[in-house]
Design a protein that fits this description.
By secondary structure, this protein is an alpha+beta fold. The protein has 3 domains: 16-124, Uridine Diphospho-n-acetylenolpyruvylglucosamine Reductase, domain 2; 131-244 and 445-478, Uridine Diphospho-n-acetylenolpyruvylglucosamine Reductase, domain 3 (2-Layer Sandwich); 253-297 and 331-426, 3-Layer(aba) Sandwich (Vanillyl-alcohol Oxidase, Chain A, domain 3). 31% of the residues lie in helices and 17% in strands. It contains 14 helices and 17 strands. It has helices spanning 2-30, 53-59, 83-96, 148-156, 174-179, 187-190, 212-215, 217-223, 261-271, 304-312, 348-359, 406-422, 453-464, 467-478; strands at residues 45-47, 76-79, 99-103, 120-124, 131-134, 139-143, 162-163, 197-203, 209-210, 233-240, 242-243, 248-251, 283-286, 299-302, 334-342, 364-370, 393-401. The strands form 5 sheets. A 5-stranded antiparallel beta sheet has the order 5-6-10-8-9. A 4-stranded mixed beta sheet has the order 1-2-4-3, sandwiched between helices. A hairpin with a 4-residue loop joins strand 5 (131-134) and strand 6 (139-143). Helix 1 runs antiparallel to helix 3.
Length: 496
């Protein structure tokens, strides 16, 4: 019986590879038929036998645990250099029966932008990175493959009194970051990224390039916070620039438990969401490797552009913002992340229990990001991003480890899961909300690579609350055959 089963598996594997090869051949033959000779596509196609395939694949994998040989690989990577390359990839992947994964920066925490368990291709957007700023109208068009660092650099070198509300990490790809919401340190003053988007370009399932007018307000609503990869390929965003002073002030104060950190954080929960909206005070909680004391020079004045560097790494003496232009290097660490929303103040006794659980886990940290201000003024249904009034702060949990191998991954991932479970009494419930851009497959996935409504409701309500129903309705109209999908995508309503 064992020999028969083994033979059956080998035979099935051979059929799978044969089908994949046939699909890939059909895909590759289709591509040139959908681009003009003036924009050849041949030099942006990397199949597995291409000498640069592995380096192109690894360049935008930000989590080292996915660099191992057993991680499923795409049949091909398309590094589009022209809009027609994106259109051709969508049309031909659908025609050839291949799944499409879309990558703009590679920060998808659980790798959904570059991993699949069925035959698939990656559409990598990193070459589409132009930024066109119109200071007179205080707007900018930003292509999906640009990084936040490149956007911040361009804004800072164009104007000393403009900014854009988005994330802290400079290597985030604009396309995916904004489509998931876009959370950063200007949110209390101006909301998140999607609150400052006024137009978009998207390639739909038919290969058409749509803007806000041609896609309609429902689809434009859905891609602002609902995850663009469920509905099409984001080509570019038109964003609204916001006003900032020529000089902003940043400070960093370290407190240990012996110095009263528990009392400070207890009071922070009451104060931080109610401060003037110009103030954003993030808390970073970690087990220190050495004792720290309060710096005598806590406050630093600098331009907004310099602040984007300082906020990410306050140990730097910021004299230049050129670091914003650095593209990614190979991932150095493995990690797992999760998130929670907090609606009620965590009591002192709860904080003390949290510290006890953290003491034995030096590889984990938490970020607590305050709400209030503009975030409490915007309706939950204004965009697909629902987490607005009623939240005191957002928690990000982040566990990292230097060791390689599946044993280390299991060990540290389970540590984080245990800690996350212990936080249940202190965070939102029914549903226990989480943030789409902190992608977490632990909270629910689709089965058999075919997203169903039943499966999607599990994670969909946690990410989107009541907006999930409307997202399904939009998906049903614009992608009824569910071409744009992943393990946590929005399904059309015709799937059971």
């Amino acid at each position: 019986m064992e020999a028969l089963i083994s033979l059956l598996l080998v035979t099935m594997s051979s059929i799978f590879l044969s089908v994949s090869g046939s699909n890939l051949e059909s895909f590759l033959q289709c591509l040139p038929q959908h681009v003009q000779p003036s924009n050849p596509i041949s030099d942006v196609i990397f199949t597995q036998n291409h000498s640069n395939f592995q380096s192109v694949l690894n360049a935008y994998i930000k989590n080292r645990k996915f660099l191992i040989a057993s991680t499923p690989k795409p049949l091909a990577i398309l590094t589009a250099k022209h809009e027609s390359h994106v259109q051709a990839t969508v049309i031909c992947a659908k025609q050839a029966g291949l799944e499409l994964r879309i990558r703009s920066g590679g920060h998808d925490y659980d790798g959904l932008s570059y991993i699949s368990t069925v035959p698939f291709v990656i559409l990598d957007m990193f070459n589409l990175r132009s930024i066109d700023i119109d200071i007179a109208n205080e707007t900018a068009w930003v292509q999906a493959g640009a990084t936040l660092g490149e956007l911040y650099f361009k804004i800072a070198n164009t104007s000393k009194v403009h900014a854009f509300p988005a994330g802290v990490c400079h290597s985030l790809g604009v396309g995916g970051h904004i489509s998931g919401g876009g959370y950063g340190n200007l949110l209390r003053k101006y909301g998140i990224s999607v609150d400052n988007v006024i137009d978009a370009q998207l390639v739909d399932v038919k290969g058409r390039i749509l803007n806000r007018e041609s896609m309609g307000e429902d689809l434009f609503w859905a891609i602002r916070g609902g995850g663009g990869a469920s509905f099409g390929v984001i080509l570019a965003w038109k964003i609204k620039l916001v006003a900032v002073p020529e000089k902003v002030t940043l400070f960093k104060v370290d407190k240990t438990l012996a110095q009263g950190a528990t009392d400070v954080l207890y009071k922070w929960q009451y104060v931080a969401p109610k401060l003037p909206e110009e103030l954003f005070i993030r808390v970073m909680i970690l087990v220190p490797k050495e004792e720290k004391t309060v710096s005598p020079n806590d406050c630093h004045e600098m331009s907004w552009g310099q602040s984007t560097v300082f906020f990410l790494d306050s140990s730097q003496n910021v004299t230049s913002i050129d670091v914003l232009l650095q593209r990614p290097t190979e991932a150095k660490i493995s990690f797992k992340a999760k998130s929670d929303y907090v609606k009620n103040v965590i009591p002192r006794e709860g904080l003390e229990e949290i510290w006890k659980k953290m003491i034995d886990n030096e590889n984990m940290f938490m970020q607590w990001n305050p709400y209030g201000g503009r975030m409490s003024e915007i309706s939950e249904s204004e965009t697909a991003f629902p987490h607005r009034a009623g939240n005191l702060f957002l928690i990000q949990y982040y566990e990292s480890w230097p060791e390689e191998g599946i044993n280390a991954t299991d060990l540290y991932t389970n540590k984080l899961r245990d800690f996350y479970d212990s936080m249940a009494p202190y965070v939102s419930s029914n549903p226990r909300n989480t943030y789409l851009n902190y992608r977490d497959l632990d909270i629910g996935i689709s089965s058999n690579n075919q997203t169903s409504l039943k499966d999607a409701e599990v994670y969909g309500t946690k990410y989107f609350n009541g907006n999930f129903k409307k997202l399904v309705e939009v998906k049903t109209r614009f992608d009824p055959d569910n071409f744009f999908k992943n393990e946590q995508s929005i399904p059309p309503g015709n799937l059971n």
